[in-house]
Amino acid sequence: MDFKQLKYFLTVVEEGAISSAARRIPLAQPALSRQLQLLEEDVGAPLLSRSRHGVRLTAAGEAFSRDTRRLLADFEQAKQNARRIADGHLGRLRLGVTVMHLWVPQITRLLNRFRERYPGVTLQVVSLLSGPQVEALRQGQLDAGMLYFPPEEDDSLCHHCLYEDHLVLVTSASSPLARHPPRRLAELNGEDFIWFDRSATPTYHDKLIHAFQRVGFTPNVVQEGADNATMLCLVAAGMGCSILPAMTMAGSPEGVVSHRIEDLDMVLPLMLVWRRDAGLPAVRRLIEIAESNTLGPE
Which GO terms describe its cellular component (predicted)? Predict the structure, then answer.
């Protein structure tokens, strides 16, 4: 049994006669009769009752006809789905991103445009810091990620810069630092500082600490937060100050303010990162939108 025989069978049912079905296919009538005979032998039951007036379905043929129509419809849908997946128009895209990045206009525009162009692709957004995103990409648990400082020595990963951020001093609005913000980082020596554990994202941590040390600032860490959102809440509670990407202020709690510092000039490139051997077409579609240079301020 093959799909061609099933289509022949349904054509005969629709035409009500083998002769007219043969003309419609087109196929020689004896060849069509032989294909129907082979189909019935394969099924193991008579499907058509033949007479000089034409053909009609047997009871078994009625049931087989219904199931065959459903089977062929599912087959056509399966073919269409396969083509759409191959074109990047259908499927699932697992995207790593921190919660704070979802508030960055460039990122929301990227995700919205991707959804507009490829509504058949389900975006599974996974909240992870930069370090864990890299590991998840390497292990195939993510298809793409949005993170700071992908490892430069890892040739298995590719990246594209989505957005360049800068660092700011974050304090509570009632803090003396808010009333008299420092001009230079070294003026923060001795101040209660909220930071994060190095193991959470080592590369990001080390680059920031190096930038601090270069200008004579050694953080007096009194409290650690698991992520930027937690650190903002600790600042709002008056437990200390912190240095965070400026974009985090878009989702900051009430009572938190930010300040630019002259020698806090480190650039934070937010990268779209993916595996060089990425085989999912939807990843390529996301990259194409990211590289289209249409994500700037509107």
Answer: protein-DNA complex
Domains of the chain: 3-86 (1.10.10.10), 91-163+270-290 (3.40.190.10), 165-267 (3.40.190.10)
For residues 109-117, average pLDDT: 91
Q: How far is CA 46 from the centre of its chain?
A: 51
Contact by Cβ (8 Å): 16, 55: yes
* Position 286 confidence tier, pLDDT thresholds 50, 70, 90: very high
**Residue 296 confidence class, pLDDT cut points 50, 70, 90:** very low
Which amino acid, 217? F
Model confidence, pTM: 0.68
pLDDT tens for each residue of 204-252: 999 999 999 999 999 999 999 988 889 999 999 999 999 999 988 887 8
